[in-house]
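Q: Structure tokens for this one, please.
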Amino acid sequence: MELTTIWFLLVAVLFTGYFILEGFDFGVGMLLPVLGRDDRERRVMINTIGPVWDGNEVWLITAGGAMFAAFPEWYATLFSGFYLPLLLILLALIARGVAFEYRHKRPEPTWKRRWDKAIFYGSLIPAILWGVAFANILRGVPLSADHEYVGGLLNLLNPYALLGGATTAALFATHGAVFIALKTLGDIRDRAAALAVRLGAATAVLAVAFLAWTLTIRSSAAAIVLAAGAALALLGGLAAAKVRREGWAFTGTAVAIALAVATLFAALFPNVLPSTLDPAGTLTATNAASTPYTLKIMTWVAVIFTPIVLAYQGWTYWVFRKRIGVTHIPQQ
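A: Here is the predicted structure, written as tokens:
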């Protein structure tokens, strides 16, 4: 296998890990005003992701760094052409991170409500815009023969991309509801489990529509198999949630996200950013890649350090594996 193919797969794996882990973070944030009936319940929800949310974001930093080093042409064109959506994602993530740190600094309800809104919108905006961005990556954007983006913002807000944004937001919300049910005790656990089933039904419709549309735009045998697997995993996760098997339900939604992302990358390959204007402008895993020597050095670095990072993050989840409830949250 060529190094360009290996690094295309590694970028896909990094974004898959990011969407699985940050996906339930976004879901918890989006559901904060829905499931959190009082301050103690909202604190329970925040504490379910408190020890891990910042570590989950490392996957995005690593994915962006890998893209920059392995496929600099892809990185440059994507981040310049998608500048405004990516800037909005960055600002939303900053607001959300600040909210997690500052929400508890003062006891006034008004203070906390403002930061709760920052958590909600800081989760909702990236959840939508990541779907919009990846839908446009797969559909293709207007690129010149020099690989320059020549479209505007409205080019990115097409019906297919908007459906992609709605799908990722719904999928992350369902994933988050399952995670809350998995990590909490008492009444909030029951309500989260019931909400996961209701959200999941709407999510399944959106996901099937989006994946079916995706396969009409770009397809391969692998993409078709992966899309079918994603649908089955989501349905299996929802069935497990209905019978209150939260561990299996979370596994189902996580696998559904993984296979859905894999579907997009499988349908995209060997391209990394198709051009809708001129085929000569299409960026591929070959013409967007760094030199073979650079890729070789990066491969050795990844082989050495990736297992260490995975072991550390796995240990973190193991340490904070217990459920929590309002009885663990002191009155203020």
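A few notes: The beta strands are 271-273, 283-284. The first strand starts at residue 271 and ends at 273.
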